[in-house]
Amino acid sequence: MHEVGIAHSVIEAVQAEAAARVGSVPVKVMVRVGAFAGVDPDALAFGFEALTAGTEWGNLKLEIERAAGDELDLIYVELEEP
Amino acid sequence: MNRVPLEKKVLSENDRIAAELRARFRANGVLCLNLISSPGAGKTSLLERTLQGFSRDARVAVLTGDIQTDNDARRLARFGFPTRQITTGGACHLDASMIERAAEGWRLEDLDLLFIENVGNLVCPASYDLGEAAKVVVLSVTEGEEKPLKYPATFRKSALLLLNKIDLLPYVSFDLARARQNALEVHPGMDIVELSCTTGEGLDEWRGWMSNQRSLLAAAVG
Questions:
Q1: Do B156 and A36 touch (CB under 8 A)?
Q2: ipTM of the complex, rounded to two decimals
Q3: What residues of A are in contact with residue B4 (Cβ under 8 Å)?
Q4: How far is it, in rounded angstroms, from Cα B215 to Cα B75?
Q5: Chain B CB within 8 Å of residue A60 CB
Q6: Domain ranges of chain B
Q7: What is the pLDDT of residues A23-66, one digit of tens each?
Q8: Which residues, other chains included, contact B158 with Cβ-Cβ below 8 Å and sequence gap of 6+?
Q9: What would the CATH number be for the domain defined by B14-221?
Q10: Strands (E), B38-149
């Protein structure tokens, strides 16, 4: 149930990256979630959707790569740049 | 399309604060223990029995987290040690910045031991490093022995499992051997202590474990 908070941290990281690249539009962010991270990937996807839908981040897609350990990592963000 | 590698932890800001706290605890020789369990497993009772066992001049402090109410802090403050309540107002776990704020003004050099009682929850607290030396998970025999398998992250990240309420074993179908086996399956080598806050059984072993952790901390700091 803390996945919304985790989703918020992911969005903040993407926002920071976008702000550092003027005019860029982030379209995809990849997160790695380990089986022992204590984070449910489906709940994370749901929280992410809930936070971004209908906002200026509505087109930002979250991809989750599953892993075996306790990873909870930001892997990359894809941005469209002018 | 530009793909920018990030390669950092989602909770990197929390981890940064936790690392700072850990460094401060270590520099001041404070053993910080983060107590985690489901609601009702007996964290507060355990702390009551533990605090009761210390002499009045013991250098101990407690931070206790709950979503609402300061009941726990009031229960624990009776023993005369510095105690503060963290009310998360909805959040299901404590994070490092809450610890940083709550401990503000405490002189760490005056402490040997800091207990953090996390919000009752076996899932979310596992994700948040609080700067503790060790996580301690409390599992009571009125719960199921499958808990370690169902909540592997918490059991895997905890150095010690306290099997609590063993005085109730005659009345419940809890399989102690099975619980131990399940815990060791997700966390091989994990320390396990069986205890009862009602009869006091196992409390000496728990105190022994803490004093051993303190020695390890002192040796690591050199």
A1: yes
A2: 0.89
A3: 17, 21, 76-79
A4: 29
A5: no
A6: 14-221
A7: 999 999 999 999 988 899 999 999 999 999 999 999 999 999 99
A8: B36, B134, B135, B136, B137, B187, B190
A9: 3.40.50.300
A10: 60-66, 83-87, 113-117, 134-140
